[in-house]
């Protein structure tokens, strides 16, 4: 008992202070500075070595063709003698300003682009909204939506050329059923542009719908639940939750569709049999891409074709710059 009591009293006593330890609270520890990693020559050149294949390919197939086309646009070069180049300055560009076929091709490009891009994106948004809902066989409908994109341009254009046939086409048959007169879908100015635009809409709606569908999956469900609790209808949820949530996807598809509209080539080339690069007997659906092909590979004027190519690039840059200014002004 005596030993136990002595042990308990010793446990209650404070521990003796260390004479080597300074009195008072301990000073705060200073955080050690992290030394910056040493960048050797191999580590600094590593990212450039990884990017070297891309930079080489981009320079060979991207930058060099642009520079070569710019150089050719200031010369008179014929396809029959590409080695002979005669300096003409801005003559190829000034001739475009007085060329009625160029302005008609530009008007056709803008018209077909609007007729194809606006319905295409609206339909794609509606299809994506339907596919995003919980319904049976969603995977099957997604594959069906992407099937037109996987179809070749030649096959799709051939089917639509038969569909819009003047004498035995299904479109005129449907018009006759409702009591309307048949339409010349290949020679009519607006009818032919509408027919070409319908091919673009059919081929690219599913592609844009899948992009919107992927973007819809990133919108949080909590936002829809909060909007429903606040009494917002489905339409107001779509306007104030869905559209702001997929805004980057909307901008991307609008940009890609605009570029595709300016570069439209395959559909109008193959639409009318025998029309070729002229875009019809009266150039009624000749786009800038067809006009470039006609000047360079039919009329053999490579200098003019290069000038048209750079004019298309400048028109596209101006259109995108104008759209950006409008967006900033609206914001």
UniProtKB/TrEMBL annotation:
Residues 106-323 form the ABC transmembrane type-1 domain. It comes from the Bacteria. InterPro entries: ABC_transporter_permease (IPR051393), MetI-like (IPR000515), MetI-like_sf (IPR035906). The keyword Transmembrane helix applies. The chain crosses the membrane at residues 48-71, 105-131, 143-164, 307-326. Residues 30-41 have a biased composition (Basic residues). It is a multi-pass membrane protein. Keywords: Cell membrane, Membrane, Transmembrane, Transmembrane helix, Transport. GO terms for biological process: transmembrane transport. It is found in: Cell membrane. GO terms for cellular component: plasma membrane. Residues 10-20 have a biased composition (Basic and acidic residues). Belongs to the binding-protein-dependent transport system permease family. This is Cellobiose ABC transporter permease protein.
């Amino acid at each position: 008992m005596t030993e136990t009591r002595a042990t308990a009293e010793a446990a209650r006593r404070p521990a003796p202070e260390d004479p080597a330890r300074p009195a008072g609270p301990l000073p705060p520890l200073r955080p050690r500075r992290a030394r910056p990693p040493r960048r050797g020559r191999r580590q600094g050149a590593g990212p450039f070595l990884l990017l070297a294949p891309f930079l080489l390919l981009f320079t060979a197939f991207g930058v060099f063709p642009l520079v070569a086309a710019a150089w050719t646009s200031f010369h008179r070069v014929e396809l029959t003698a590409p080695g002979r180049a005669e300096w003409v300055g801005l003559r190829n560009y000034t001739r475009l300003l007085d060329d009625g076929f160029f302005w008609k091709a530009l008007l056709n490009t803008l018209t077909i682009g609007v007729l194809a891009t606006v319905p295409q994106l609206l339909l794609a948004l509606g299809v994506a909204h339907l596919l995003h809902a919980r319904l049976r066989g969603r995977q099957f409908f997604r594959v069906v939506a992407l099937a037109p994109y996987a179809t070749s341009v030649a096959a799709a254009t051939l089917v639509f050329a038969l569909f819009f046939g003047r004498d035995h086409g299904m479109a005129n048959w449907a018009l006759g059923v409702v009591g309307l007169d048949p339409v010349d879908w290949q020679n009519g100015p607006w009818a032919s542009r509408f027919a070409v635009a319908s091919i673009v809409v059919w081929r690219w709606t599913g592609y844009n719908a899948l992009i919107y569908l992927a973007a819809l999956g990133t919108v949080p469900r909590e936002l829809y639940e909060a909007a429903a609790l606040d009494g917002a209808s489905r339409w107001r949820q779509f306007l104030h939750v869905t559209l702001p949530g997929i805004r980057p996807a909307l901008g991307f598809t609008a940009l890609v569709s605009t570029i595709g509209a300016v570069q439209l080539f395959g559909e109008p080339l193959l639409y009318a049999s025998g029309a070729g690069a002229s875009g019809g007997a009266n150039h009624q659906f000749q786009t800038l891409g067809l006009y470039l092909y006609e000047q360079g590979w039919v009329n053999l004027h490579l200098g003019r074709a290069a000038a048209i190519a750079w004019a298309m690039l400048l028109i596209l840059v101006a259109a995108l710059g104008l759209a950006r200014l409008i967006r900033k002004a609206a914001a």
